[in-house]
Design brief:
With about 260 residues, the chain is an alpha+beta fold. The chain has a single domain, classed as 3-Layer(aba) Sandwich (Aminopeptidase). The protein is built from 8 helices and 11 strands. α4 packs across α7. The longest helix is centred in the last third of the chain and has 19 residues, at about 230-245. The radius of gyration is 19 Å and the shape is globular. The termini are far apart.
């Protein structure tokens, strides 16, 4: 499939009360193109539990090509009150894979949530069916769990807390996996597969598959990333560096005899 220019996209946040029926149907249309074992009823039931959504649209046509859901929750863990920003279903049409529009909008939403309670610890909560979601965490957060280097074990109780709160019937805390059963929604077999070359080239993908060996049938790996000052300062700089590398003109080598 031919990739489209990712700069042609924009993202915006809508509270749930602003999500119209046509938008919901378009989101489901995208979702059904990449996932098995789904229904519109289940999709809508899950949606009404969220705080809002991020829409990814083509700038010129305003056509919706992707989305992500968001839920803000408060938790009490080991005697302290913390805020969790939970990401639910996230999908973008394949021809736009690589776009940073959604990431940037989500980042600014996290800043907004942090400003509302600046002294309360805040975390990004997510459950990952596939390696792409896990890499969003592992490639952008300084402190996260599960971590292939064994760091940040202190975050494990927070994973237990939000899984017990949101998914108590499906959480196996020994394996730290969510198992919704054989008929649960999962990625289609031709979407976001993991090849031997990818396993060899990327230790984080290896680690994801080790932690969630049954991902192909829809088991979810619960994850968490800490939203702190270090992240809020460094992430914009990381984006700038990536953009600069992409726009930097190539140097043409000239052979001399």
């Amino acid at each position: 499939m031919q990739r489209q220019n990712a700069s042609n996209l924009k993202a915006r946040y809508l509270p749930l009360s602003k999500v119209s029926v046509p938008i919901m149907r378009r989101m489901y249309e995208i979702y059904s193109g990449y996932y098995e074992n789904i229904s519109l009823d289940i999709f809508c039931q899950d949606m009404v539990e969220k705080s809002g959504i991020f829409l990814v649209e083509e700038k010129a046509t305003k056509r919706v090509v992707g989305f992500s859901t968001l839920k803000v929750i408060d938790m009490n863990v080991e005697g302290r009150r913390v805020k969790g920003v939970f990401s639910g279903d996230t999908i973008i049409e394949e021809k736009y894979w690589g776009s940073k529009a959604l990431q940037v909008k989500f980042f600014f939403r996290m800043i907004r949530e942090k400003i509302r309670h600046p002294f309360r610890p805040m975390f990004w909560l997510l459950i990952s069916k596939g390696y792409k979601t896990y890499l969003l965490l592992a490639n952008n957060f300084h402190n996260y769990y599960p971590n292939p280097e064994g760091k940040d074990q202190r975050l494990a109780p927070l994973v237990d807390a939000y899984c017990q709160s949101l998914f108590s019937d499906y959480y196996c805390n020994q394996r730290r996996l969510l198992d919704f059963g054989e008929g649960y929604t999962h990625l289609k077999s031709d979407v976001a597969g993991i090849s031997d070359e990818m396993r060899l080239a990327n230790e984080k993908i290896q680690f994801f598959e080790k932690q969630n060996p049954s991902w192909q049938r829809g088991t979810e790996l619960p994850c968490i990333g800490q939203v702190n000052l270090k992240l809020l300062v460094s992430y914009p700089f990381q984006l700038w560096q990536k953009k600069r590398r992409k726009t930097k003109p190539a140097v043409t080598a000239v052979a001399c005899e």
